[in-house]
Design brief:
Structural class: mainly alpha
Number of helices: 6
Number of strands: 0
Number of domains: 1
Largest sheet: none
Radius of gyration: 17 Å
Shape: globular
Distance between the termini: 47 Å
Order of helices and strands: HHHHHH
Helix content: over 70%
Length: 118
């Protein structure tokens, strides 16, 4: 059942994003940024954890999950280091994901061939 929950929750998150792209004048970059910000807010308020428990990867993989990771990192870093944690927590908690994205993007760039668009 966890696979089904992950599928439908992740699907709903993607459908919401697609509706925003199709029905509003918001650019995809603004929508993606908004997803991260909403994830930070939901994570900071403690509302995202039950969604993660229910949907697993369906909630942790989308950008809302990245925002939640940032919020949780800041919370734990502030608890350990005080106000300095506000500046270091987000980077420390999301470093592995950011590094993976950079490495896999670099590998993909080696495999792909760039060309000018006509």
């Amino acid at each position: 059942m966890i696979y089904f929950n992950a599928f439908w929750v992740g699907g709903v998150l993607c459908v919401i994003g697609q509706i925003l792209i199709d029905k509003t004048k918001l650019t995809p970059a603004r929508i993606l940024t908004s997803y991260v910000v909403v994830g930070v807010v939901l994570g900071a308020l403690g509302f995202y954890e039950p969604i993660l428990d229910y949907a697993g990867a369906g909630a942790s993989v989308p950008l809302l999950g990245f925002g939640n990771t940032i919020a949780q990192g800041v919370k734990s870093s502030v608890a350990l280091h005080g106000w300095l944690g506000v500046f270091t927590g987000a980077v420390a908690s999301s470093a592995a994901g950011i590094t993976a994205a950079l490495v896999f993007s670099f590998i993909a760039s080696l495999a792909a061939r760039s060309a000018d668009k006509a």
